[in-house]
Amino acid sequence: MTLPSTSLSALDLAPSPTGIRTVTRPLRRRVLTVVDVRDISASLVRVVLAGETVDETTLAPFAPVDHVKLFFPDAQGELHLPEVVDDRPAHLDRTRAIFRDYTVRDADPAAGTLTIDFVRHDHGPAGRWAIAARPGDEIGVLGPRGSHVYPDGHARYVLIADETAIPALARWLAAPLADAEVHAVVVVASADDVPELPSPPLGQRRRIQVVGAPQHERAHALAAAVTQLDPAHPDTFWWIAGEAGTIAPLRRTLRDAGVDRGRRDIDGYWRVGVANLDHHVEDDD
Ligand SMILES: Cc1cc2nc3c(=O)[nH]c(=O)nc-3n(C[C@H](O)[C@H](O)[C@H](O)COP(=O)(O)OP(=O)(O)OC[C@H]3O[C@@H](n4cnc5c(N)ncnc54)[C@H](O)[C@@H]3O)c2cc1C
Q1: Which protein residue's CA is at the shortest distance from atom 17 of ligand 1?
Q2: Which contacts (CB < 8 Å, 24+ apart) does range 134-137 have?
Q3: Where in this chain does the record put each FAD-binding FR-type domain (predicted)?
Q4: Which of 49-63, 93-107, 263-277 has the lowest mean pLDDT?
Q5: Which ligand 1 atom is nearest residue 130's CA?
Q6: Ligand 1: distance of its center to the CA of 85 in Å?
Q7: In the predicted model, what is the mean pLDDT of the chain?
Q8: How much is the pLDDT for 221?
Q9: In this structure, how many other beta carbons lie within 10 angstroms of the beta carbon of residue 3?
């Protein structure tokens, strides 16, 4: 059974001072229409979708990695979206659906819009769809499903993202972490790939470090950046997302430095050579 949308506003998406909470939302399925497409950096294209109204809790400030499953048309232009049965997608593995995970970059319930920032690349159906997207195109959307609500009580936040995680990083940077120190590391091919990011709330000490490196040099560059940031710092929360193989060694670095699960979230958003990586398989937990 799909719960009525009114129940969504009752979800507790407030942060705790420490620890990551997971809040499950009722699963919603909809077909949205592209209303705007524009480049926001050398490698990111912003697509604004509209249709059924979006839920007012979609943009909870401490749930920056909320994401949806987007369903893309097949070669004949047909969209295949699973039915939602008992609050789950039915037989997702057995349908012809083409789906990928994307971050909710923005949502405006009053306007009924949902904004997604896509990395422009032509290696897979999602990247190709984004390159060709035009107003009037349709896309299927499932979710967002589970929200990770991050803590707001740490002295320092280190946020590390590649191009695919820039939308989630931008959401993080909009979080009202007024008294914290925030250090963001963005690993990209070149500085032109970084779009305009939200400015810091009053009182926040913020540094954004852009590391320009081709894919094969990124693991090395990130290891050096993390060492410089002192993994043993006792009151830092670490969020890291990007290419799975590149960020995997950082998991061990943080574990060895005594950073427990309540103070880290490391998520592989894609993997070189793998189509539709299931990021849950790569999960820390
Ligand atoms: C929680 C979550 C949130 C995400 N949010 C975003 C987001 O907001 N914006 C975004 O752009 N991506 C995001 N991603 C990553 C995105 O889902 C993957 O990049 C996805 O694989 C793209 O699908 P595709 O059909 O283009 O390529 P696939 O069919 O999945 O892969 C085909 C080939 O393309 C390669 N490939 C996949 N992605 C890239 C890439 N970015 N650059 C170069 N080669 C690639 C693969 O290694 C593979 O060889 C997110 C992933 C997760 C798990």
Answers
A1: 101
A2: 134/34, 134/37, 135/33, 135/34, 135/35, 135/36, 135/37, 136/33, 136/34, 137/33, 137/34
A3: 27-151
A4: 49-63
A5: 26
A6: 27
A7: 92
A8: 97
A9: 12
**Whether residues 143 and 238 fall in one domain:** no
pLDDT in tens, 117-158: 999 999 999 999 999 999 999 999 999 998 999 999 999 999
For residues 128 and 189, state if they share a domain: no
Answer for the pair 183, 158: CB distance below 8 angstroms, yes or no.
yes
Do 179 and 97 have their domain in common? no
In angstroms, what is the span from residue 268 Cα to ligand 1's centroid? Answer: 10
Residues 251 and 240 in one domain: yes
Q: Stretch 183-189: mean pLDDT, rounded? A: 98
Pair (56, 143) in one structural domain: yes
- Tokens 């590390």 locate to 160
DSSP 252: H
Confidence of residue 284 (pLDDT cuts 50, 70, 90): low
**Ligand 1 atom 37 nearest Cα:** 270
Å from CA of 165 to ligand 1 middle: 10
Q: What is the CATH number of the domain that holds 158?
A: 3.40.50.80
Q: pLDDT band at 96, cuts 50/70/90?
A: confident
What is the distance in angstroms between the CA of the first residue and the CA of the last residue of the chain? 28
Q: Whose CA is nearest to atom 7 of ligand 1?
A: 102
Evaluate whether ipTM surpasses 0.95.
yes
